[in-house]
Amino acid sequence: MKRMIEVRCFRSESSGRDGNGSRPDGSFQAFEVPVDGETSIQQVLMYISENLDPTLAFFKHAACRQGFCGRCVVRMNGKPCLACTTPVPVGDEPVTVEPVSRDRAIRDLLCQATGGMSGLNLS
Amino acid sequence: MGDKRAVDVLIVGSGGAGLRAAIEAAGAGCATAVISKGKVNRSGASLLAGANISADVECDGNSLYKMGFPGADRDDSKDAWFREIVDQGMFLNDQRLVETYVEDAADRVRELIDWGLRVNGLESGRGISVSSRRLLDVLMRKAVERGVECVSDLQAVDLLVKDGRACGVLGVDVFTGEYVEYRARAIILATGGWHSLYPLTSGGTDLTGDGQGMAFRAGADLINMEMVTFCPNTVLSPGIHRGSIAPYILGGMGYGHLLNRKGEEFLQRYFDPGIADLALHTEWNKLMLSFAEAKEIEKEGTPVGGLYFSMKHCPNEVFEEILETIPGLRESYLPMIERLASGYSIEIAPAAEYFEGGIRVNERYETAVAGLYAAGECAGGLFGANRVSAATTQMLVQGCRAAGCASEYAMETGPEEVDRDQVSELKAALDLPFERQRAVFTGAPDPASPAAIRKRVGELADRYMSVIRTGEGIEHVESEVGRIRNVLRSDVALSNRSRAYNPEWLEYLALRNLVDVLDASSKSAGIRTESRGAHFREDHQYTDNDEWVKCIVTTRGEAGSAETRFEPVVAGRVQPPPGRADYWENILGLARKYI
Fold this sequence. Notes:
The complex is a heterodimer.
Chain A: E1 3-11, E2 27-35, H1 41-52, E3 73-76, E4 79-82, E5 95-98, E6 105-107, E7 110-111, H2 112-116
Chain B: E1 3-12, H1 16-27, E2 32-35, E3 55-58, H2 61-66, H3 78-88, H4 95-114, E4 121-122, E5 127-130, H5 132-145, E6 149-151, E7 154-162, E8 165-173, E9 179-189, H6 210-217, E10 222-223, E11 228-237, H7 246-252, E12 257-259, H8 267-270, H9 273-281, H10 285-300, E13 307-310, H11 316-325, H12 329-341, E14 346-355, E15 358-360, E16 372-374, E17 379-380, H13 391-412, H14 420-435, H15 450-464, H16 471-490, H17 503-527, E18 542-544, E19 550-556, E20 562-568, E21 580-582, H18 583-593
Parallel strand pairs in B: 1-2, 1-9, 2-6, 9-16, 15-17
Antiparallel strand pairs in B: 3-5, 4-5, 7-8, 8-9, 10-15, 10-19, 11-14, 12-13, 13-14, 18-21, 19-20
């Protein structure tokens, strides 16, 4: 019951694989990811990281995966959410994933806001 | 150059053990810092205790009764509790550690209540039920009150040791990738277990055996590393709930049916009906259910390699009632309950949950390295071969004790300058993967990539170091670990040179620890040719008290790999009965005794 969807991830400068060369900085990169109705955004990102591009930066090294640490915040289709408890939307439309604030972005999908959860109360 | 800081007592890890240690060290007048690779008080093993539905904190029932809990077991005593812990730990417990655990537990519970922790009720005659997040918040507030410096997002990488004495920690700021050097008179490791080695675990992604790995590389001993407890009924699928032990908690309350891929009940194939019932509804269920589930998954597992946890037989009123009566369920698990109520199941399997083994400490929580202490799950020996009592109490008791002793040591010890040569050599070695940058990505899997190595060690742990073990499988792990260690040392390469949150480099830093713990754990499991507690050997299905009431200690050998030796158990007032018994007869006998 898996289906393939297109996931467009924001990539910041100095990101990606050196020498790949095909992707301009500060833009979206598309990945094809298998999902079902109960795949979380975090699992989508893990899939990309493990199978398609290990350089994609998102908060993954100290994540509880269950909605309690509050650190995996991203913006999915424009809305801030916890990546671990948010399922991919129903349907075949492409999904966009961005840092919750591009101004405070450290790299790719990771930003200082996810570092401190300052001003965000999502957990 | 770089970022250099100094404190009296440095604590690595910010779960319950780390925060309780910090409160004590700061209270003793030491300049104290807690560093965490994640967010202080929102990372580590404690955060997920009891799935945030109900974490139990235990002390002897009589003390609990005197604290004003009329439902507590007033006939209980510290001595009775002590004897149960050692009996159920199958006599591998360090009885000095058990002594501090039962002695201090009531003081630790009482102070939590004094500090404002809300108690939901009693979990048992010995345990109060609390929310793990609230527990961490209470500790955090106290630590901040006492002036503890809390540093989030700082990954400890290695201990700095000069003339045999721990004098600091080299860390990495995960967001910038820059090195941070912390000098300290005493260091307490409180980093939890190595859950993340296993593909299915109830722990967070940060639990990568960092304390065990760092201590091992600094020359400390590890103990009982073969002992790993698996939690049955942990979510495998749907993916969004993966790793949650909520079905285990529901099962423990008597809810749910376990079914194989054909929809058949299977527990009675492994245990007779009375025992199967016991397996479902008592604390002993972890060993027994995990075994039955691991066996059934081999035979009739679901396509994703699990079993079904179903509540399809329940009328809607049941769901309404559990949402009403179980705090935390509605808040955190409503989608899971709705799924179960709709007639669909949750696919479950046993998951790595608790590590009885770890850094070897004495009753002052000192390791073999001067100035280095360990507390909480990363310290081994308390629960022997099988934990049945609360790990939350372990973290509180040991954090407090370790910090008391570390503070005394810090007060009477002068500041030590770090060994500059060690720092330079370490940084040079850690930077090597950046220099071995990979060529243009071709799409082919690169065996020297951190992702590929991580996948490989996970497969080895899952297949051979899980609930059911064999000598042949463990030998395979041992030989593979040697190969992986070489790749990690000489070949591992990154795709990107950026230091700012480089996920591959962070993976590499975690792998240094994961490979050390897998090495120590597999060698210990290989050498223990019997079954005891959490360690079940299919090729040696007996528990042999004549030959095997002894501990396996691991240290770092010449080439960096683990070397094992036997050491006598630190015994005390409880003695094992002599003889050799069938593993399951022994387990079932204990289970019946402690219903």
